[in-house]
Prior knowledge:
Layout: H1 4-16, E1 21-25, H2 31-42, E2 53-59, H3 61-70, H4 75-87, E3 92-96, E4 102-105, E5 128-130, H5 132-135, H6 139-147, E6 155-156, H7 157-166, H8 177-189, E7 202-203, H9 205-212, H10 216-223, H11 232-247, H12 259-262, E8 270-275, E9 280-284, E10 290-291, H13 297-313, H14 343-357, H15 363-377, E11 383-385, H16 387-395, H17 398-409, H18 419-430, E12 432-434, H19 436-447, H20 462-475, H21 481-487, E13 492-494, E14 499-504, E15 508-513, H22 524-536, H23 558-574, H24 578-586, H25 601-608, H26 611-620, H27 635-641, H28 645-660, E16 670-671, E17 687-688, H29 712-720
Parallel strand pairs: 1-3, 2-3
Antiparallel strand pairs: 2-4, 4-5, 6-7, 8-9, 8-15, 10-12, 11-12, 13-14, 14-15, 16-17
Residues 293-294, 326-327, 343, 393, 400, 430, 495-496, 521 line the site of glutamine (GLN).
Amino acid sequence: xxxxxxxxxxxxxxxxxxxxxxxxxxxxxxxxxxxxxxxxxxxxxxxxxxxxxxxxxxxxxxxxxxxxxxxxxxxxxxxxxxxxxxxxxxxxxxxxxxxxxxxxxxxxxxxxxxxxxxxxxxxxxxxxxxxxxxxxxxxxxxxxxxxxxxxxxxxxxxxxxxxxxxxxxxxxxxxxxxxxxxxxxxxxxxxxxxxxxxxxxxxxxxxxxxxxxxxxxxxxxxxxxxxxxxxxxxxxxxxxxxxxxxxxxxxxxxxxxxxxxxxxxxxxxxxxxxxxxxxxxxxxxxxxxxxxxxxxxxxxxxxxxxxxxxxxxxxxxxxxxxxxxxxxxxxxxxxxxxxxxxxxxxxxxxxxxxxxxxxxxxxxxxxxxxxxxxxxxxxxxxxxxxxxxxxxxxxxxxxxxxxxxxxxxxxxxxxxxxxxxxxxxxxxxxxxxxxxxxxxxxxxxxxxxxxxxxxxxxxxxxxxxxxxxxxxxxxxxxxxxxxxxxxxxxxxxxxxxxxxxxxxxxxxxxxxxxxxxxxxxxxxxxxxxxxxxxxxxxxxxxxxxxxxxxxxxxxxxxxxxxxxxxxxxxxxxxxxxxxxxxxxxxxxxxxxxxxxxxxxxxxxxxxxxxxxxxxxxxxxxxxxxxxxxxxxxxxxxxxxxxxxxxxxxxxxxxxxxxxxxxxxxxxxxxxxxxxxxxxxxxxxxxxxxxxxxxxxxxxxxxxxxxxxxxxxxxxxxxxxxxxxxxxxx
Length: 729
Ligand code: GLN
């Protein structure tokens, strides 16, 4: 049962009297927070009984998506809207909340409407009456209605899958395998009517439901925008832009210590993204194979940690950045390699695999064993082996052999270590072949606490991943690690083949690949990509997620945030809370925002008879005095409807004087307070700079506000004059 509704109803109704109607754009799972907000808003001692009927139309997010994305309004919805307009219905509350439509009646309190207008608010009753038939609609039905053609009554699977792709879910995702298999089966049953592609079929409701039902949980989550990046397509637009910026950067040099690396085109550039919910996006040369090189280091380290635990592993290898080159012939003061992300430490980790993790395995078995871990992490994507690179690595390995001997001399290795086998194993790990696509899934598995997002297989324990990410954070980009941790603030690992594995813990993994390297051995485009990413998004470990920031947070639901702000604003106006309105204004909020039905703060303040709020909105916020809601009502109509004669008089007078006020002229710069401003500390008066005309209605305190006809630019200027960087103002 939809538990939130009665609470919401009781809470809202004071504010919903009149023609109040509000759309709450909330996904599932947010009921608690919303209810709390609303309870606060309702904590008003002035409530008096109100028996207005409240209709609650609960639209699913799918309905909204359908409208917003596919321009597919649906006749029923249109008819409903026009009939509501004719009836000029009493208070309506739309909750875009779940797949239900409910009607129920106000049992809360609030002042009564004028007698003469009471007939507009006739339907009184006290019950909660869910529309059962709607309640029974399941996700498959909703999806069908969302995509089906009104003419044919069939759903185009091509369109459906394209819609799914915009959420980040690909046709090849293992989590929709059953859907794709079912589609092929239906195609076969229909004698391949639509030609070679099963995806171009048009299905009826029953077939569609049967086809999608095995994967409906994931699909419903996708279309409800319940993934970690809800608006995935707008996020990927940013990635495309960053990609293009980096593409233009042609600096850096190819690694040339082996011919296979020297042969790469310096123009190759690919970026793949995989979120912890398995949302995928790729751009550029993402299928081009390259060898893992140092990007294998965190992975072998993870296997060693998983099998031996951190105590054993770190009795052989340290956790400190070396401050030296990745292949420097140096050990720390304990005669251990500094960390597992540089060559010495990685060779040491290989010895642990060889001597401690799988002492009974042959070299060939350990190779297979390691590869199977990599494969599981990548969700079965492309992991292979490049023998030419392996042979070249082994040939050009004087420094690595030197490191091996130096460590053996210093007794760094566990007993029974066969150095030759260890060195070969290290070169084999470096020579594993992959591509950006596969590596982004590996990075995402690290971001996801060791669980592969696409297969949902638990590959590593979360503690292992925490340790791996910690070392990547401090030591992942060779001798640039300190600067990288400072600037980008995320765990990453680069490799000499041009790879950059970036992990945004609990959010996503990104793999950027481009062969040209800087002098420290890091991919030039990869580094630029990371810089630009964290300057756009608040992904840096120490970015503040709560307070004002000029960065985007793609984890948040754009409309959810906006919807909640509107709700807060409208509640403030409806409850006559001028202090809250001032706070909204000072935090830079657009006070002219309207809800789904075009109802503004001014409508609600007027319908509730809050003259101070009305004055504040017009005089201080310079909101237009005559916005029309979806029924064509002005704020003054609301005030009239509910017999708030003082508000009616004020609004009429304002409108009258606005007519006469010349548009170009505004008052001189004023720094003053209105009645509504009395609570402001004396040093925080708002300065509004205009020139010319006075307000049509000077406030009692003598405030001369700008004309209500001031242009949008004027009102923006007045808001901009407040220092938005000080949220506490
Ligand atoms: N194969 C390289 C080496 O051992 C790997 C190092 C790297 O990617 N920086 O020298």
